[in-house]
Design goal:
By secondary structure, this protein is α/β, with parallel strands linked by helices. Helices cover 26% and strands 17% of the residues. It contains 31 helices and 38 strands. The strands form 12 sheets. The chain has a 7-stranded mixed beta sheet, covered by helices on one side. α5 (129-147) crosses α25. It is globular.
């Protein structure tokens, strides 16, 4: 009898004979195995999804008498197949730990009761849920009614805007998709226009850059598909440490196919340590490296010519007046923008030439000097290996080797996978970074194929799902743009902005179905389906950095922060902590008391002088709730509840439901300023047991027919006449069967390419590899017959294959060949980007805002000229300041900790593995500064220079060979690096690394520049 570990424990633990049963199967158990078998005896198994990174691993919880007694990897899950990283393996610690006698005890740091901190208090007091909800509703109502703007004047005319800028909301990638959907729904009912979550700080530039290039801002393939690649570039990421279980699929490709791994990173990370080629670059020059790769592909004729001609806009002719000034680094149309405090562009020359019929002019030979292909060759001609080496500090031999290796995938039958994470996104040129990845893969024909793609590795379990359900100020669920006072004062005006071609022509169906989800029977044709109740944006940036700037200016009175911790994860964290002291009230919902909830306890803070009222509400961990989590590969997976949260703690779905009901009842009883967005909101989620009926939430998100309540099968059934309801059109289909919802499917693939189409649901329409039309040639034959994704069935005259075709089923071969990228109006991938990004139509390197050097190629170019300055005197800009802050610093993550550390620093097992903050310093720099390994150092940046005094943070020096200095334009430059997981709360405390980082960001998303800025390091004592 063959038994795996799980089967062994089920046999042993499921019988009263315990160890005696071993004899019957001829097995011998270790003493540890016997103890574990007894621990899970008589327990039931509950499947859940890991609550940490975006890989989406399966976990089996063993539950006995309503108490979880064990958690381990699910061997049946296709992503992790029973394996877990150190964080996932510590899941048990979220609720329990073991005492010295080995007895299971509750985690003492978990919040178990609602708490309230009055003005000026130094302690909390315990309160009831009803009291907390009543008082929170009063605070919301008071602030909203005093600050509400029913109308605004636009071009001399009043426009209904129905908003308040005095209350802001931070949602959470830690929470389920269903919870986040209700978060944004209540926030928008109140009239908030500053609705955010952590994606703003980690991957917002992914969405901007990839959507502008392909039409969707998502990971194109998925984790298991890594096994099909021939070559990987891992740039700005550290898969082995930040997404460790996914690394096994890279290793499978290496074992099975002899695949090669290229790592590009300032540090010799754990990924770089096992790479076939390692290219060290200085922080902030990823784009230089990728522009050099683009030049190498074009200059050496390494592109996939057929793919480029048919599936990209390489042949499209651009306006003859388009240009680029290599002296200033400015494109045509540049002008000073005082509103945004930066350079903006009139993009009228960033457009296609069109004929008399309005059709795009093209040159299929790619020879016209105004075609995209020739403009690219001109634009990237100076990104030679010599120049790239001089700007990045990279070894020219390693550069050439990496370029040759990855560009070898630009041929039919080959697959190159480009992987990245926050080491690519968190820059003032973050969207250009991510776009350059797309450009590389379009040139090589690596989009839509098995083993290919641009694979943005997301860092939280449901950060994708929180974006999908609209918890960002600039999107509604399903990436629908919200109303804007300047361009869409009415629903008719909104629909007039619908793109003229591409799949977004269906947007009117999605917005009306969403309005019906928001306002139900109150949304009618006579009132624009409630369109005017939605708050309208004012045209200004309402994201994370300006949110806290407004807070510091006293413009924001209340913050609702849900399982987020900006006091550690936000840029210029000391500034943000000081800004929070200006709040009148704060609501924090979390598992533990975070630095954000306890901002008033932080270093330099004086509680007696802080009048902010704080409500701390205890929420549920991942296995104490049910709902969906969407991993990086867009798999919308169901997580089952294993046990109740401890004490008086509640599921986050229950909390948001009760919070809204209390607020609505208050308005119903007392009235208020424009109460209709709240009183008319469709909100009926109560179940028979007094809890939230999550099926009602899922049905609303999935979509249903108003007439009979029947669930729609998918987004193709949605209408613009008010007859359908749908909370997020891209999720339509995920819960279209009450008996067997697709999101709960658990059938692994036995044959095929590893798509696992019957495991959960993958948006959109269960497609596992998006843009997969490009996996086949113009006649419909797979470029790689050994790994076919889809193909044209010449007998049935339709597409079929190992994946759901990413094209409408009604399209014939010719139309699908002309429109492989269905979300874009021109139907093809964009090498040249039209009117979608603020800063550049072609990816172009600019130095970080804090840079030790001037630009080599564009000598008069500042940091990204389209990046707005939120704070003056915030950046290192003079030679004197560069001498004061001489070292380049980058931040990074550790395998043992998770994001801001709010969770993992409260888990004893992980604290034992990685107990404290440190800074990596090269042996050469340590020798120069007289620093020994393990000594304390002081780290300073310009952000901590306040009132004429230089502040800093303390850390332990980790003297290492992993981060040697680089030579930049002939001068030796030192790099240091810090993890950012520590703060002043929890079981393990340390300084906040992000107190050093600048509040300056990418012009398209305002994602902060965490990964490249300047500092000073000095020995303490």
């Amino acid at each position: 009898m063959d038994l795996n570990r799980r089967g062994f424990f089920k046999v042993v633990g499921g019988t009263a004979l315990g160890a005696a049963s071993l004899a019957s199967v001829g097995a011998v158990a270790s003493s540890r195995g016997q103890r574990e078998a007894l621990r899970i005896a008589y327990s039931k198994e509950v499947q859940t999804i890991c609550t940490f990174c975006g890989v989406g691993c399966g976990i089996i919880c063993h539950v006995r008498d309503g108490i979880m007694v064990n958690a381990e990897g699910d061997p049946g899950h296709p992503v992790n197949e029973g394996t877990l990283c150190s964080k996932g393996a510590s899941t048990f610690n979220l609720a329990y730990l073991f005492d010295r006698r080995g007895q299971q005890k509750p985690n003492p740091n978990r919040l178990t009761k609602p708490l309230y901190r009055p003005k000026g208090a130094t302690e909390y007091r315990e309160v009831t849920w009803d009291w907390a909800f009543t008082e929170i509703a009063k605070r919301i109502k008071d602030t909203r009614d005093r600050t509400f703007q029913p109308t605004a004047t636009v071009e001399g005319k009043p426009v209904t805007v129905n908003r308040t800028e005095a209350i802001t909301w931070l949602g959470s990638a830690f929470c389920t998709g269903e919870e986040n959907y209700l978060f944004q729904k209540i926030a928008r009912s109140i009239g908030m226009i500053s609705v955010e979550h952590c994606a703003r700080l980690c991957h917002s530039s992914t969405v901007a850059g990839l959507a502008a290039t392909f039409g969707r801002g998502v990971m194109t393939n998925h984790w298991v598909d890594f096994q099909n690649a021939d070559v990987f570039i891992n740039i700005g990421g550290n898969t082995a440490e930040c997404h460790p279980i996914s690394m096994r699929w890279i290793e499978k490709a290496r074992e099975k196919k002899g695949a090669k791994l290229i790592a590009v990173d300032p540090r010799l990370s754990r990924t770089a340590a096992v790479a076939d080629v390692y290219v060290q670059i200085r922080p902030g020059t990823n784009l230089v490296y990728l522009c050099g790769l683009i030049h190498h592909i074009l200059d050496n004729d390494r592109c996939h010519k057929e793919y480029v001609v048919h599936y990209t806009n390489a042949s499209h002719l651009i306006h003859p007046d388009f240009g680029f000034d290599e002296e200033t680094g400015l494109f045509s149309g540049a002008f000073d923008d005082p509103v945004r405090n930066c350079t903006s562009y009139d993009q009228s020359t960033w457009t296609y030439q069109r004929d008399e019929e309005g059709k795009i002019r093209k040159d299929p030979t790619l020879q016209d000097p105004n075609c995209v292909f020739q403009l690219m060759k001109k634009h990237y001609r100076n990104y030679t290996i010599e120049n790239v080496s001089s700007m990045t500090g990279a070894d020219p031999v390693a550069l050439r080797e990496s370029y040759d290796l990855f560009s070898s995938t630009g041929a039919p039958g080959k697959a190159g996978s480009l992987l990245y994470a926050m080491g690519m996104t968190q820059f003032t040129h973050g969207a250009q970074n991510t776009r350059s990845c797309g450009v590389v893969q379009l040139l090589l024909g690596n989009l839509g194929i098995a083993g290919g793609g641009v694979n943005a590795q997301r860092g939280q379990a449901n950060v994708q799902g929180a974006c999908d359900t609209g918890v960002l100020y600039h999107i509604l669920p399903g990436y629908i743009p919200p109303p804007n006072q300047n361009v869409s004062p009415t629903l008719a005006a909104y629909n007039a902005t619908t793109p003229p071609s591409g799949w977004w022509i269906h947007r009117p169906k999605y917005i009306v179905s969403l309005l019906k989800a928001f306002y139900g029977e109150n949304a009618t044709t006579d009132n624009e389906f409630g369109y005017q109740w939605l708050p309208k944006l004012d045209g200004l940036d309402q994201s994370h950095i300006p949110m806290f700037k407004a807070m510091s200016e006293g413009k924001v009175e209340g913050l609702i922060c849900w399982a987020d911790n900006p006091m550690v994860s936000g840029p210029s964290a000391l500034h943000e902590r000081q800004a929070m002291a200006k709040l009148k009230w704060l609501v924090s919902v979390d598992l533990f008391e975070t630095e954000t909830a306890a901002f008033w306890k932080g270093p330099t803070m004086k509680p007696a002088e802080i009048d902010t009222e704080v409500f701390v509400l205890p929420g549920a961990s991942g296995y104490e709730r049910e709902g969906t989590k969407t991993n990086s590969g867009r798999w919308v997976q169901w997580t089952y509840k294993a046990q109740d949260p401890p004490g008086m703690a509640k599921s986050d779905l229950w909390i948001v439901n009760e919070m809204f009901k209390k607020l609505r009842s208050l308005y119903a009883a007392q009235g208020g300023t424009v109460p209709e967005p709240i009183t008319k909101m469709a909100w009926d989620y109560d179940g028979a047991d007094g809890q939230v009926d999550i099926v009602k939430v899922c049905s609303e998100i999935n979509g249903y027919n108003v007439a009979d309540g029947s669930l729609v099968p998918g987004f193709g059934a949605l209408k613009d006449d008010g007859s359908t309801v749908c909370g997020s059109w891209i999720y339509s289909g995920y819960y279209n069967d009450l008996e067997a919802p697709p999101t709960k499917r658990r059938v692994r693939e036995k044959e095929g390419i590893g798509a696992h189409k019957d495991w959960s649901f993958s948006w959109p329409a269960n497609r596992r590899i998006v843009y997969n039309r490009g996996s086949a040639d113009p006649s419909g034959r797979p470029y790689n017959p050994e790994l076919p994704v889809i193909w044209w069935d010449t007998v049935q005259n339709r597409w079929t294959g190992n994946d759901v075709p990413d094209i409408p089923g009604t399209w014939d071969l010719q139309k699908s060949t002309e429109n492989p990228f269905i979300m874009l109006p021109e139907g093809v991938g964009r090498l040249f980007c039209l009117n979608a990004l603020r800063d550049a139509p072609l990816p172009t390197h600019f130095e970080p805002a804090d840079s030790p050097v001037q630009h080599l190629l564009y000598p008069k170019a500042p940091f990204n000229p389209a990046s707005q300055r939120f704070y003056e005197d915030h950046l290192v800009e003079t030679d004197e300041e560069r001498a004061r802050y001489p070292y380049m610093i980058t931040t990074f993550r550790l395998v043992e900790h998770y994001q801001s550390g709010a969770v993992t620093r409260n888990l004893p097992w992980l604290n034992e593995l990685m107990p404290g903050l440190f800074i990596e310093i090269s042996t050469e720099l340590a020798a120069d500064l007289g620093i020994q390994n393990g000594e304390k150092v002081f780290v300073e940046s310009k952000r901590l220079y306040q009132d004429g005094k230089q502040g800093g943070i303390e850390a332990v020096a980790c003297v290492t060979n992993r981060i040697p200095p680089v030579t930049i334009q002939g001068k030796r430059r030192h790099i240091v690096a810090m993890p950012y997981h520590w703060g002043y709360m929890g079981m393990s405390k340390g300084a906040v690394a992000n107190e050093l980082s600048p509040s300056v960001g990418d012009p398209n998303t305002a994602i902060p520049e965490y990964k490249a800025f300047l500092c000073n390091v000095r020995k303490i004592g």
